[in-house]
Amino acid sequence: MASVSFGSAGQADVPALPCRHPGLLMAAVMGASVIQFLDATIANVAIPHMQSSLGASLDSVTWVLTSFIIAGAVATPIVGWVSDRFGSRRLFLFVVAAFIVTSMLCGAAANLTQMVIFRILQGFCAAFIGPLGQTIMLDITAPSKQARAMSLWGMAVMIAPISGPMIGGWLTESLNWRWVFYVNLPIGIPTLFVLWWLLPSRPIVDRKLDLFGFSAFALGLAALQLMFDRGQHKDWFDSWEIIIECGLAISFLWVFFIHIRTTDNPLFPKELVGDRNFLMVLVFMILMGIMMIAISALLPPLLQNIYGYTVFDTGVLLAPRGVGIFITMIVANRLLGKIDLRYMVAFGYTVAAWSLWEMTGWTSSMGKSDIIIVGLVQGLGMGLTFMPMNVIAFSNIPPAFRTDGSGLMNLMRNVGASMGISLVTTMLARNIQVSHADLVQHVTPYNMPGVDPGATAERLGSVGEGLMRVIDGMVNREAAMIAYLDDFQMMAIVVLCFVPMAFLLKMPNMAPGSAPPPVSE
User: Fold this and answer.
1) I need a labelling partner for 315 at 20 to 30 A (CA). Which of 112, 206, 323, 324 fits?
2) Distance between CA 485 and CA 447 in Å, rounded?
3) How confident is the model at residue 247 (pLDDT cuts 50, 70, 90)?
4) What is the CA radius of gyration of the chain?
5) How far apart are alpha carbons 3 and 121 in whole angstroms?
6) CA distances (Å), 325 to each of 108, 152, 199, in order?
7) What's the CA gap between 409 and 150, in Å, rounded?
8) Chain segment 118-161, per-residue pLDDT in tens
């Protein structure tokens, strides 16, 4: 594989790609990252409104979300190759501009076919923005300031998806669903002009694409994402569609892993797949997707359907998680070089697990304060893990392979998000049924002395029927609450199991208060 030499940039504590006005350029890169990560969740709350407007069925309208996810999964593996082949500046400007245009087209879509086509194009562009944005943030900052840059970028990565449902709900209620796409324009257009003005470029590299490896990996990921996204709707392995998708995912990914170990020109550089820290961080990225996105998918319906909060109130109650992330990312930056980063990661996940366990004690009649406090603590834990993991992941990765590394990390986080959402929604649906069956057993004359619910309803006629519906609604509400608590318990256990794995990471050598210098080739 051809390599790019960045000289001694890392050794001299100067940026690999010097630029004018680095602060303004960083703000523009973050603006592009925000709209990309925002679109991963902002459209979810608008799906019911899209269904009626686009004349789609309940089954087919989910392709608005599925198409975006699959396009991103398919495109992500070749981000590094395309960047080397066509130049990072040219590619980033193109995908940001195309993302803005496709966002506008999504908002103007007249039917479901148009919407799915535009979402595929939007997802394809989004796959490039995240990895390239992270790479640019590292390239334009000196090694001693890279941890701070990762903190700033990490805020966009973690806060934007959390804010998506709140912003999407507010826009849908205040204006209409089309504004969940149009909102990208006032952020994206100024961002694009700044990028065009200031963005430098990495050298172009004549790098050969592992077409066979890419095809196997892309097809395996597409089948896997389809399985995760449609599994609950199709009742999982009771459906031949899910069985076929599972078989294809296993087959293609197995072929890819065998191929990458034997080929002389692998899809991903050997410097990545051979680095223990990087591979371990990829596993943690899967957990990050499960923890960050899956909990974001659970909380809005819980707060709206069980507690009866409006979309705006729900967003306000979820905001403390973002505040917690912001606080601990600043703290983590100041602790760099002063404590072992592995302790920081382990402590962050422990705090996150504890907050999830506290959520298992929620009741359907509690107030807002418990939700706010637990959300803040959860954000503190999540924010404490992200930046140290990025520092550890890139500590031994040559600068030339940052784009490939960033792409893989984004991909694993998205896979974890799909896996987590599928897992928690499946558990939720099934546990609601189980809990409902358990609770209705106690709505009998034997458990309600002096009252026979069936006989009373029959004597009261239509009033009795209304009474029974009220009782059934109460049972449904409590059954759903129990199912949510079961999900929280499962997630707490999963996160806690990952805590010891932090000590399998190898601590990078770094000076106090600085990020590890990139390794030049």
Assistant:
1) 112
2) 25
3) very high
4) 24
5) 30
6) 35, 11, 28
7) 14
8) 999 998 898 899 888 888 888 888 877 777 777 777 777 667 77
d(CA 81, CA 1) in angstroms, rounded, equals: 11
Q: Which of these, 383, 167, 393, lies nearest to 271 by C-alpha position?
A: 393
Is 445 in the same domain as 488?
Answer: yes
Q: What integer pLDDT is reported at residue 429 of this predicted model?
A: 81
CA distance 505 to 502: 6
- Torsion angle of alpha carbons 107, 109, 113, 116, nearest 10°? -10
How far apart CA 224 and CA 117 sit, in angstroms, is: 20
C-beta separation of 234 from 242 below 8 A:
yes
- How would you write 371-408 as a 3-class SS string? HHHHHHHHHHHHHHHHHHHHHHHCCCCCHHHHHHHHHH
- Identify the helix (H) or strand (E) that includes residue 155: helix 146-174
N residues, the chain: 521
**What's the number of domains the chain is made of?**
3
Decide: 93 and 196 in contact? Cβ < 8 Å. Answer: yes
According to DSSP, residue 305 is labeled: I
Q: How many CB atoms lie within 10 A of CB 515?
A: 28
Residue 217 in tokens: 């990996």
Query: And the tokens for 298?
Result: 């659970």
CATH number (domain holding residue 454): 1.20.1250.20
CA distance 229 to 242: 10
Handedness of CA 355, 356, 357, 360 (dihedral sign): positive
Q: Which domain covers residue 168, as residue numbers?
A: 11-209
CA-CA distances (angstroms) from residue 339 to 151, 154, 388, 511? 17, 20, 11, 11
pLDDT higher at 457 or 34 = 34
Residue 189: Cβ within 10 Å count: 13
Work out the mean pLDDT of the chain and round it to a whole number. 80
E strands in 303-440: none
- Residues 228 and 349 placed together within one structural domain of the fold: no
Considering only CA atoms, which of 113, 96, 42, 133 is closest in space to residue 410? 133
Residue 449 pLDDT grade (very low, low, confident, very high; cuts 50, 70, 90): low
Per-residue pLDDT tens for 459-502? 555 555 565 566 666 777 888 888 889 989 988 998 898 899 88
Say yes or no: 170 and 276 in one domain. Answer: no
Same domain, yes or no: 225 and 178: no
Same domain, 262 and 277: no
Other C-beta atoms lying within 10 Å of the C-beta of residue 234: 17
Q: What pTM does this model have? A: 0.75
- Residues 299, 371, single domain; the answer is yes
Compute the distance between CA of residue 64 and CA of residue 293 in angstroms, rounded to an integer: 18
